[in-house]
Design a protein that fits this description.
10 helices, single chain, 19% strand, 290 residues, Rossmann fold, 2 domains, 38% helix, 10-stranded mixed β-sheet, alpha/beta
Length: 290
């Protein structure tokens, strides 16, 4: 199978969560023999406000990014196997735009983000903090690069069950990445679709579920299971099922099918990765990439 991961990007700030994301990136880099890129973006027009805010919260522990990134490089470079490197980069401007630009310029294959633990959607956050947030759905569609969002408590050392939701299209790129990971970790892939509410009929999603299963069985020797489940939305159904089987990873498409049900979730476009304690990899379908 073609090697999919060569360069991993970790956008960082000076906090424990970013360092934990880096630690997970080092593990993945060693598993797949990759370089690791650390990118710090200083928001244009917000640097002083952010600096004072962080100083207040951290009681003066703020340091120059070149200094602490240099410390991280020195600390983690020797943990990378082979001749692979930890690269450092500094940018100014809109965080999401600078990350997208770096992905395209440096041919990044995977982005790893530490997932905030807060429950408030971005629309309710203070203005000075909003500029530092990243819209995973939009970033993935714009760059075509998969994004792995995980909380600090997540572990990637033992991936045994991967959940892959299927809607009314053939998820070729999603299958490609899920299969690549499953082959490496000897994991089982669980295909999930929402059942047709009218008994005795076959939904479009179910038809594509069977097509996806057939595709994987014809072209791989992976352990694959199909699950047609009752539920209001694919996002909710996927999350519930993933929790039930103690899944280690969810691989999803970037798009509206990820939006969880409920008025509040729809109003704030709360996507599946916002509500998941399980690591979620978001992959843009070929038709969605811009």
């Amino acid at each position: 199978m073609t090697k999919l991961f060569n360069n991993i990007l970790v956008p960082v700030t000076y906090n424990r969560k970013s360092e934990m994301a880096l630690q997970k990136a080092i593990y993945i880099a060693n598993e797949f023999q990759c370089h690791v890129h650390l990118l710090y973006v200083e928001g244009k027009g917000m640097a002083e406000a952010d600096k004072h805010l962080i100083e207040a919260l951290r009681e003066g522990e703020i340091q120059d990014p070149e200094f602490w990134l240099g410390q991280w490089k020195e600390k983690y470079q020797h943990q990378l196997e082979g001749n692979h490197q930890v690269y450092l980069a500094f940018r100014k401007g809109n965080k999401e735009q600078q990350i997208a630009s770096y992905i395209l310029q440096q041919k990044i294959d995977l982005v790893i983000l530490d997932q905030p633990s807060g429950l408030l959607p971005s629309g309710l956050l203070p203005v000075q903090l909003r500029g530092g947030l990243i819209n995973i759905n939009r970033l993935t569609r714009k760059t075509g690069c998969p994004v792995l969002a995980l909380k600090s408590s997540a572990t990637l050392q033992h991936i045994r069950n991967i959940v892959l939701p299927v809607d009314a299209r053939l998820p070729v790129r999603k299958v490609q990445f899920a299969s690549y990971l499953a082959l490496h970790f000897n994991a089982k892939i669980h295909l999930v679709a929402v059942a047709e509410p009218v008994q005795g009929t076959t939904s479009v999603d179910t038809k594509y579920l069977l097509k996806t299963y057939q595709l994987m069985k014809e072209h791989t020797d992976l352990d694959v299971e199909c699950h047609t489940l009752n539920g209001e939305s694919l996002a909710d159904t996927t999350l519930d099922f993933a929790r039930q089987i103690s899944a280690d990873l969810i691989v999803v498409d970037a798009g509206k099918s990820l939006t969880q049900s409920g008025m509040l979730h729809r109003f704030f476009s709360k996507f599946i990765f916002d509500g998941s304690r399980i690591p979620v990899m978001t992959v843009a379908p070929s038709s969605a990439m811009k």
